[in-house]
Amino acid sequence: MSDAEPPRAAYLVHGEDVGLVSQELTALLARLVAADGHGGPTPVEEYGEPGRGEPRQGEVPAVSLALGACRTPPFLASRRVVVLRDAAGLDASQLKDVVGYLAEPLATTVLVLACAGKQAPAALLKAVRTAGVVVDAAPAPVGKARSAWFTQRLRDGPVRLAPAAARRLAEHLGEDIARLDGVLASLGDAYGPGSAVGLEDLEPFLGSAGGVAPWDLTDAIDSGDARAAVAALQRMLAGGERHPLQVLATLHRHVGAMLRLDGSDATDEASAAALTGLRPYPAKKALAQSRRLGHDRIVQAVLLVASADLDLRGRLGWPDGLVLEVLVARLARLARGRASAGHAAR
Questions:
Q1: Quick check: is 172 in a domain?
Q2: Which residues, at least 6 apart from 135, have a Cβ–Cβ distance to it below 8 Å?
Q3: Residue 51: left if φ>0, alpha if ψ -120 to 50, beta else—which one?
């Protein structure tokens, strides 16, 4: 919603990342309050607490209170904003009531629904799209679209980051992009709105490193960079809060795809994707890496992953993190050994 656009009858903010839903909801409410051109403040009434569960005996459900407020004209204001924060917890009957209201919404009410932790029900999505706007609280997942999303977020932020500082922030946050707005707000409070922020200015505000995507780990392994692979692993376990067996499953899929392609007739990303079940680009990378490693090293990689699986299940008695660090270092050494052999031959 632009500043010049009049508010719609309903908005739904939904997504799996609770932090992003909260940020989008806060930004939306700020725009809705600012959109009232009649000089007075726009009343905002909030109902429901995410994760609270069923109401106590005799307690009126939050959705009933919210819908009652929606059907009441505002007092001494041109409109009212009613917020239902726990739309993810609506049961079938409550969902029917909300959809029924959205079929004939009150012109002086703006209903804002927040559905955090999971995608909203299809019926609710359809009703809100008809009456208003659905806000998907999630950034572009990968590639250029994600970079464009991140750049736009920086451009809309309270400070101006130098290119080196922007790159450092993107690398440090990794997948933990829900922290971005908080870091930018802290920088704005510390240095003032519109201030230029360099790399040295940024460093004290970074906090702990966020998680990274699985392909950051597998790409580092494939390049033979053991140091980068172990660093990516540690960020997946700590910042990304992934279970060690989840990381092992990622590595199992990675070497398993190369094993399927080893000796196959696959020659391009399409045939590799059909054979491995991967998307075309990851399949293309797996095909190239399987050709670089060769049969013997692929077999070694599969055996290393299988051995680590037994170690994680108690065979060795090492800490889980150490088992995985040794595994990724050995997998990276396999890739590096192949590259070194090639250099030596040349």
A1: yes
A2: 11, 12, 13, 14, 24, 28
A3: left
Residues listed for the chain: 346
CATH number, domain containing residue 69: 3.40.50.300
User: Which token pair is 240?
Assistant: 């990304």
Residue with tokens 């939904």: 14
Strand order in the sheet with 44-47: 44-47, 80-84, 109-116, 10-15, 133-136
At residue 339 the predicted structure's pLDDT band, cuts being 50, 70 and 90, is very low
Strands 44-47 and 80-84: parallel
| Per-residue pLDDT tens over the stretch 148-184 | 778 888 888 889 999 999 998 888 887 677 678 778 8
Give the Cα separation of 316 and 242 in Å (integer).
Answer: 21
Average pLDDT, the chain: 83
Is residue 228 in some structural domain?
A: yes
**pLDDT band for position 40 (cuts 50, 70, 90):** low
The structural domain count of the chain equals: 3
List, as one string, the DSSP characters of 201-251.
HHGGG--SPPP--HHHHHHHHHTT-HHHHHHHHHHHHTTS---HHHHHHHH
Q: Is 166 exposed, middle or buried (0-12, 13-18, 19+ CB in 10 A)?
A: middle
Tell me the pTM.
0.51
How far is the C-alpha of 314 from the C-alpha of 54, rounded, in Å?
A: 41
> CA 263 → CA 218, 272, 274, 287, distances in Å?
21, 12, 15, 11
> What is residue 8's three-state secondary structure?
coil
